[in-house]
Amino acid sequence: MTGVFIISAPSGSGKSTLVSRLMSEVPGLTFSVSYTTRKPRGREIDGEAYHFIDRLEFEDRLQNSEFLEHAEVFGNYYGTHRSALKIAEDRELDLVLDIDVQGASQLKQTIPDAVTIFILAPSREILEQRLRSRSSDSDETIRRRLADAAREIRDYSRYDYVLVNQDLDEAAETLKSIVRAERVRRVRVEDRIRPILRTFDAALGST
Ligand code: ADP
Ligand code: 5GP
Question: Are 36 and 51 in contact (CB under 8 A)?
């Protein structure tokens, strides 16, 4: 049974850093590469960071019901393609999604067992420092991201887990623990438990 892990965070909270640690340190995960109409930033490669498409193509795909969820964020469309889940299921991997709050609540309706995780910087001051340390954004962009964060953090209460990213190593360990613990929920392990139980049934039969 494919597990679905949805991770959301205001920009600068450390989501990319933590997700890349998670993906490289926990086996059996695959990352959902979203479709977006926003333009590539910096060294983003088509098909890796996102599938970059124009609005017309996005709207066509939307009409064809190709997306599991979609949202308009900062004037651009973003969407999770149905194939992301299908590929994870076929390969028996758990799926990790980096999507916004609107997308998270849509997906939670379609996949009620999806696990939702919200990442937060310890304070506004620290968030600002981190946005500046990344030094890829202009002052204007940083101001806008801080204002957006003030709104976005209010949605934390819709999530199953809220992770405060203070110490990076500790936050990475906690994120990995969430995934590991969710993987041994009873509903997820039934298929693995039945054959174990059968070995005991056989022993009972022979006594
Ligand atoms: P996001 O993907 O949420 O926008 P990033 O992962 O790009 O955020 O992190 C923003 C900046 O903060 C990066 O420069 C990153 O190295 C730094 N950072 C992330 N987590 C921590 C942490 N726990 N302590 C200090 N710096 C951090
Ligand atoms: P960015 O443009 O900075 O990469 O992402 C902007 C926002 O869009 C982030 O909050 C990110 O989580 C969200 N996002 C990225 N892909 C998707 C997606 O497929 N669906 C939704 N709903 N949001 C997404």
Answer: yes
Instruction: Evaluate if pTM is beyond 0.85.
Output: yes
Tell me the CA–centroid distance for residue 14 and ligand 1, in Å: 4
DSSP 86-119: HHHHHTT-EEEEE--HHHHHHHHHH-TT-EEEEE
34 CB less than 6 Å from ligand 2? yes
- Does 27 fall in a domain? yes
Report the separation in Å between the CA atom of 34 and the middle of ligand 2, taken as the mean of its atom positions. 8
**What region does 191 belong to: left with phi over 0, alpha with psi -120 to 50, or beta?**
alpha
CATH of the domain at 127: 3.40.50.300
Nearest CA among 108, 119, 145, 122 for reference residue 7 = 119
| CA 125 vs CA 34, 44, 132, 147, 168: distances in Å | 30, 28, 11, 12, 17
Binding site membership of 165 for ligand 1 (Cβ less than 6 Å):
yes
User: Rg for the chain (alpha carbons), in Å?
Assistant: 19
**Closest ligand 2 atom to 9 CA:** 10
pLDDT tier at 134, thresholds 50, 70, 90: confident
Query: Ligand 1: distance of its center to the CA of 83 in Å?
Result: 30
- Could you tell me if residue 39 is inside a domain? no
pLDDT tens track for 8-48: 999 999 999 999 999 999 999 999 999 999 999 888 999 99
Q: Is residue 137 part of a domain?
A: yes
